[in-house]
Hints:
Layout: E1 6-12, E2 17-22, E3 25-39, E4 45-57, H1 58-67, E5 73-78
Antiparallel strand pairs: 1-3, 1-5, 2-3, 3-4
Amino acid sequence: MSVNKFIGIGNIASEIEAKQINTDFKVVNFTLATSEKYTSKDGEKVETTEWHKCQASNRTAEVIEKYTQKGDMLYLEGKIKTRSW
């Protein structure tokens, strides 16, 4: 058994790109930035940011396109899919 799940809270870091594939299938693509803040062993404050390319489809895509924009904080849950070119 395996688990393939992403849960993240971050800010939408790019403009949302919406595509209508056919009359009943929509896709949105955007980048989500998640940050972590911590104090190093030396007492220095450190912030790291990870960038996640995200894609949503159908009803979820419609909601994201209608109610969010670049800079908004978003809770996102889904599966991870790695692609290579």
